[in-house]
């Protein structure tokens, strides 16, 4: 983290000081990637057309970004094509240093080599069952419960069997009908080759997509996904893809999830709720609960995705949420969790946990409050959306009321007025409740009942605090009286 404040030339000079510093700086991508994350916003904010162009390694990308910023500040001349190529492929003398041993760097290196299907069906068992080389070999999972697969579900069936009981399901017959599924053709690389068909204005549209703190173009991200060798690959996770860059008619909300979307009552003030997701194999999302206690669906368009899921009352091993759920501490990478905690999770929770592989064209329903992680078995593109329905409305209102600091997607990333953000969070449950009652009058009694319950809970907590404070005050007075008596005796 300290090294992220240095500029690339200073880091390069520091790396030459000793074997330990050379290995620490260049032995993994972490230092240079952190530096790119620190420099990228300076470059991206300078122009709405600026995107980070991955140069094959994070070190070369940091050098490229440094030069771009120096040019913007007028501190160096424009480079020729030959000079740019030389910068990306520097002629470095061979490293001469003593052997270096590091357990932490070994763990990171090991995780980059681990296959994303680690701990899945072993080959001997697969061979005996005749599953080797078939898609079902990915789907067999003796360690946890399997997520059921359904097709042709009506909205009523889905709500009765899965949404209301709050249990996961995979819908096999939805996303395969999308135009976007057809355009991608099962290959993440088609984000580059079919850009003109996907984006308004095509490759020259200047559309930028968020990959953590970095903004890239779709073709640029496809190049990065093909070239990277990261322990934890940068994940494209963009909330604005459908508000401008994407052409109309490429996808649609599945009918099972289109009936209820109660955050729509807030109009353009609703929290972020839909994302375009893309990443290479081994990329994914670490264990989390979806924001604001919403339900979610995730449609896989290319590549298989491995899911592990645990019900709300089961926190996975190696996952440490804060008391207000605002922060969650997890291992650095998904493969690190598989290496260190998968067996413990299987031993403790094999009867309540779920594991499955979602195939291209399938859509998984993620119930509210469920812990889940996702790891790409192959390069993957997906579309996901969070929503509130009548089945989880009460839970969402309770979350918004009791955990206001954990409310996300309402502009906290760009907020310049912390006080205004805090005020909106504090009153967001009331704002949402009022809008829902106007949007769906039939739900007004349920909303009022939940608000009354929350009011009663808050009053009960207040009375309990008052009783505790009074008890403490009496105890303080008793101790003070004892102290006075002791003093008199002396």
UniProtKB/TrEMBL annotation:
Record-linked InterPro entries: Cupin_8, JmjC_dom, JMJD6_ArgDemeth/LysHydrox
Keyword entries, A-Z: Coiled coil, Iron, Metal-binding, Nucleus, Oxidoreductase
Pfam families per record: Cupin_8
Coiled coil stretches, renumbered: 447-489
Gene3D superfamilies noted in UniProt: Cupin
Superkingdom of origin organism: Eukaryota
Any one GO molecular-function label of the UniProt entry: cis-regulatory region sequence-specific DNA binding
Protein name: JmjC domain-containing protein
Gene source species: Neobodo designis (Flagellated protozoan)
């Amino acid at each position: 983290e300290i090294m992220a404040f240095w500029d690339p030339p200073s880091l390069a000079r520091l790396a030459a000081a000793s074997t330990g510093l050379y290995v620490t700086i260049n032995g993994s991508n972490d230092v240079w990637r952190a530096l790119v994350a620190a420099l990228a916003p300076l470059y991206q904010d300078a122009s709405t057309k600026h995107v980070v162009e991955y140069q094959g390694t994070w070190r070369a990308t940091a050098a490229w970004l440094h030069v771009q910023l120096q040019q913007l500040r007028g501190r160096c001349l424009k480079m020729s094509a030959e000079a740019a190529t030389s910068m990306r492929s520097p002629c470095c003398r061979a490293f001469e240093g003593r052997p270096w041993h590091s357990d932490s760097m070994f763990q990171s290196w090991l995780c980059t080599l681990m296959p994303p299907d680690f701990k899945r069906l072993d080959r001997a068992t697969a061979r005996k069952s005749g599953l080797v080389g078939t898609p079902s070999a990915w789907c067999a999972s003796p360690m946890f419960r399997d997520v059921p697969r359904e097709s042709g579900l009506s909205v009523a069936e889905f709500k009765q069997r899965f949404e209301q009981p709050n249990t996961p399901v995979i819908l096999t017959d939805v996303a395969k009908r999308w135009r976007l599924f057809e355009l991608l053709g099962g290959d993440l690389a088609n984000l580059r080759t079919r850009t003109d068909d996907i984006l308004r204005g095509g490759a020259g549209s200047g559309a930028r997509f968020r990959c953590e703190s970095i903004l890239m173009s779709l073709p640029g991200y496809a190049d990065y996904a093909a070239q990277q060798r990261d322990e934890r690959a940068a994940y494209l996770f963009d909330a604005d893809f459908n508000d401008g860059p994407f052409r109309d008619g490429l996808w649609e909300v599945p009918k099972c999830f289109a009936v209820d979307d109660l955050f729509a009552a807030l109009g353009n003030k609703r929290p972020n709720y839909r994302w375009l997701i893309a990443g290479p194999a081994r990329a994914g999302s670490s264990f989390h609960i979806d924001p604001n206690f919403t339900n979610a669906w995730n449609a896989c368009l290319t590549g298989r995705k491995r899911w592990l899921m645990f019900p709300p009352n089961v926190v996975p091993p190696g996952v440490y949420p804060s008391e207000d759920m605002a922060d969650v501490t997890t291992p650095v990478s998904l493969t690190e969790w598989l290496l260190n905690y998968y067996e413990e999770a299987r031993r403790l929770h094999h009867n309540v946990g779920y594991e499955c592989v979602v195939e291209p064209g399938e859509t998984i329903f993620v119930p509210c409050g469920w812990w889940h992680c996702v790891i790409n078995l192959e390069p993957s593109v997906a579309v996901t959306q969070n929503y509130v329905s009548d089945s989880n409305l009460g839970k969402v209102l309770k979350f918004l009321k009791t955990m206001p600091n954990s409310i996300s997607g309402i502009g906290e990333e760009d907020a310049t007025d912390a006080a205004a953000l805090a005020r909106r969070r504090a009153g967001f449950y009331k704002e949402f409740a009022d809008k829902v009652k106007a949007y769906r009058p039939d739900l007004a009694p349920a909303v009022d009942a939940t608000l009354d319950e929350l009011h009663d809970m808050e009053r009960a907590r207040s009375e309990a605090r008052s009783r505790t404070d009074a008890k403490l005050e009496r105890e303080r007075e008793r101790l003070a009286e004892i102290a006075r008596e002791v003093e008199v005796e002396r």
